[in-house]
Design goal:
- The strands form 3 sheets. Strands 3, 4, 5, 8, 9 and 12 form a 6-stranded mixed β-sheet that branches. Strands 1-2-10-11-13 form a 5-stranded antiparallel β-sheet, with helices on one face. Strands 6-7 form a two-stranded antiparallel sheet.
- Among the domains are: about 70 residues, Aminohydrolase, N-terminal nucleophile (Ntn) domain, beta-sheet knob region (Penicillin G acylase, beta-roll domain, Roll), CATH 2.30.120; about 45 residues, no CATH class.
- By secondary structure, it is α+β, with helices and mostly antiparallel strands.
Length: about 290
């Protein structure tokens, strides 16, 4: 199998008994906090009291150049990204990635040794970041989907916009791994993910949203359309699906152009699209123009 460069462990592969892979799951693992500050003493307001900004000076060696000196500043929530002295404001980032023990992808060391779905899910309990869709299959005919990654619990806001860093908007820990959605041996006979929004509607109705920013669903929809057909899926079908250059995005956009502009064939700049099959072939002028 394979894993992330510079990180031990296999996150996508098999061990002879179980096979596993992943795609990105769109949990919102970050927040921007805005602080009232005062330049005297370099402090920020938190719960009615002034707290000291933590400052660290670092030297970064650069080959064939002098060392670069940088000043890093932090609030209790994380690194300060920007300060506006004129308006007495500072902006800092809180992110799952900087919490102790998160160690991206390191849970792969346990995941890659799992021989049963129970062992697999136990290994995922320590998967902090990034948030990903895990898909699983083993020789006992178990297939499953389970998203993993630390998902902050926000009780009084949704994470879409920056919030005051004065103590009114705090994470209340993380969603328990046991409380998240999962799918095991579904009736449709397969599990498939591709970075798109895939949280079950029934789960969403009774839980806070994981996040609101997801990738385009074209790959996800293509997978599900192809694998849902009644005919048996062959190895050749899987190879064809993996290598497909058909663009559902092109289908949608060109349909909108037809509606807005009339027949695209009547517009000189768009005549390439009139007989295009919506495949992004390397030799296709229409594909190059569309991209």
């Amino acid at each position: 199998g394979a894993g992330e460069p510079m990180i031990p462990g296999i996150s996508m592969g098999h061990n002879g008994t179980a096979a596993f892979g992943l795609t990105i799951f769109g949990a919102d693992q970050e927040d921007i906090y805005v602080y009232e500050t005062k330049s005297e003493g370099n402090k920020y307001l938190y719960k009615g009291a002034w707290e000291q900004v933590k400052t660290i000076h670092e030297k970064i060696p650069v080959r064939a150049h002098t060392d670069q000196e940088v000043k890093l500043q932090f609030t209790r929530h994380g690194p300060i990204l920007n300060q506006n002295a004129e308006k007495d404001r500072a902006f800092a980032l809180r992110t799952v990635w900087m919490d102790p023990g998160m160690a991206p992808y390191m849970a792969s060391l346990a995941v890659m040794r799992s021989k049963t779905f129970s062992e697999y899910t136990s290994s995922l309990a320590n998967w902090g970041c990034p948030s990903v869709n895990h898909i699983y299959a083993d020789t006992s005919n178990v297939i499953a989907w389970k998203p993993s990654g630390a998902a902050p619990v926000r009780r009084n806001w949704d994470g879409l916009l920056p919030v005051p860093g004065d103590g009114r908007f705090e994470w209340e820990g993380y969603l328990s791994p046991d409380d998240g959605p999962f799918e095991m041996n579904p009736a449709k006979g397969f599990v498939a993910t591709a970075n798109a929004m895939n949280v079950p509607e029934e789960w969403s109705r009774s839980h806070p949203a994981f996040g609101y920013e997801w990738s385009d669903s074209s790959r996800h929809d293509t997978l599900h359309t192809t694998l849902s057909r009644s005919e048996k899926i062959s190895l050749r079908d899987c190879m064809s699906l993996q290598c497909s250059v058909y663009s559902p995005i092109a289908v949608r956009i060109l349909a909108k152009l037809d509606t807005l502009l009339g027949s695209v064939a009547n517009m000189p700049a768009l005549h390439l699209f009139s007989n295009w099959d919506r495949h992004l072939d390397a030799s296709s002028p229409a594909a190059a123009f569309f991209e």
